[in-house]
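Report of the visiting student (M.T.), summer placement. My assignment was to run the structure pipeline on a short list of targets and document each run. The first record concerns SHLB2 protein.
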Amino acid sequence: LQFTEEKLGQAEKTELDAHFENLLARADCTKNWTEKILRQTEVLLQPNPSARVEEFLYEKLDRKVPSRVTNGELLAQYMTEAANDFGPGTPYGKTLIKVGETQRRLGAAEREFIRSASISFLTPLRNFLEGDWKTISKERRILQNRRLDLDACKARLKKAKAAEAKAAVTP
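After the run finished, the structure tokens were exported:
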């Protein structure tokens, strides 16, 4: 009732401290940017949407995500196979082996980067959203309910004083 009357402008609303309001606004801003950064980093690390969905499902089921061959590693594999077909002693075969080995190292570095970024960067962001932010939201709801209770009590007290004053005036 108090909430509805406040929204309709029929009841007074106790304002929170300006510093506290600023903290709440900063918390909201932090949450929004953290979600955007998390999503975009996931897109950067895994551009394939179906693979991202698969990884998400494995995470939610608390299962280990199967290891995938990176595009660089796959290219390295093809180059090595082609070099073996052409003959490792031919100039083209030697070149394919050398470039294939470089691609394999690049693919392994990419895999390590993805693993490292997931552990060092994405995990703290997820921990904030799934832990700290949920706590902030819960405490915010509790504070809002307490404020509404306080305002409802203030309104009842005001009405009681008005009724008491009216009763004192009318004999």
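The chain has a mean pLDDT of 89. The radius of gyration is 31 Å. I thank the supervising group for their guidance throughout the placement.
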